[in-house]
Amino acid sequence: MIFFLYGLDSYRRSKKLSELIAPYRGKYSAVDFMVFDLEDDPDGWLKIKEFLKQPSLFVESKVVVLKNINALDEKNEKKLAKVLKSYIETPKTFIFISEKNEPKKAFQFLLDKPVQAQAFLELNGKLLEFFLKQEIEARQLNFTPEAWRFLVSYVNSQSEKGWFAVNELEKVKLAVLKQPISLAELKTLIRWFSKESVFYYLRDIVGQKDFSKKLVILEQLFLQKEEPARLFNSLVYQVRGNDILRLADYDVSVKSGGLEYEEALLDFVIE
Q: 215-244 pLDDT, tens per residue?
């Protein structure tokens, strides 16, 4: 029997894999339960074949977990595909496969019955909101409408949204904030600037007298991977007086190879 889990949402995919193999971990010994990661092992298909052929010592079944089968070259993926096909309807051999992407041509049969296939699409839109509501309910948290909208936008701006959302909700849970959690309270834990508000935070950098507060804003913009060149060019439209000349000098330095945009922005804030 083969279970094929795939999709960009690695959190839900990993969680499902853990749920599926949990009953076997305590029941089977190391000699009957093996995990193979084929990313750096092009001959791993042969090890899998040999493992499956070996008779079990104390139980009738074997359990195999496979990862990164798409990393194999064309020659080896065909060999592994042949091995896997021979175990599709073997009732006492359990093969669990977890992949980020849909299967390559040689493994297309993994999407068809009797293989148990399940997709875990990237969390976006309504799917992301549904996931967040489930995780929030599981932690007995409650947010005001404003805080909820902020949280959705915040998680949606990240990669690996599932893992990121769970980590952030755990942080909120540990903070033991008064419920329903307001936007102001949430922002004491989460400092994030939406794409639409970056312009206004750059304006704060220009108007702020305390350079340490300027640094905090700039650091957060860097942490959320805002493009330094975009930040610099947006800042040009915010400055006045001598700051225009300073940025012009920085621009010349960057374009002549003297500074990077990150360095120019940092120097501008400190000075």
A: 877 777 776 677 788 778 878 777 788 888
